[in-house]
Amino acid sequence: xxxxxxxxxxxxxxxxxxxxxxxxxxxxxxxxxxxxxxxxxxxxxxxxxxxxxxxxxxxxxxxxxxxxxxxxxxxxxxxxxxxxxxxxxxxxxxxxxxxxxxxxxxxxxxxxxxxxxxxxxxxxxxxxxxxxxxxxxxxxxxxxxxxxxxxxxxxxxxxxxxxxxxxxxxxxxxxxxxxxxxxxxxxxxxxxxxxxxxxxxxxxxxxxxxxxxxxxx
Length: 217
Prior knowledge:
The chain is mainly alpha-helical. It is built from seven helices and two strands, in the order H-H-H-H-H-H-E-E-H. The chain is 63% helix and 6% strand. The N terminus is likely disordered.
């Protein structure tokens, strides 16, 4: 009847699941289960199908590439120094365009690479040559100087409103560049850009030297 068929199906399914669990436990512990331990035909068939699927899945997993090992802090620090050095070289290859862009107030076309934090150099201090940290200090000073000069170059091109009073005429206002305003005390954007490029060159040379000694020989 329907009730007995349902009970038989449930019993067969339960036996198959138990057989599968026993097989998996045995594989994990290095044991073998003989066919005599699994007597129900449906259970044997269920285990066979599941074993085949499990084997196929395991084979597929073995084909997947292994994840790359995570970089150590030292390797990350070395990579950052090398990448910044390469970026500075690339920027300085276009020094004339760099200066001209800032002179025109379009310096954003030539962004300066982010400075290497001093903590990055400190990460390598124990494994580098003794002169490494002295080079790091020189780099930090040159990099800071370049950024200060770039800020001044941008400042000179900022528009400001000035008040003008000429004899016999009413006072009027006019918009001019901050560097050109009377009493600003600023040099030209071009001069600041030239000096910034010189500081960037010094910073680049420092990084080149740091790369040579960041691993003790």
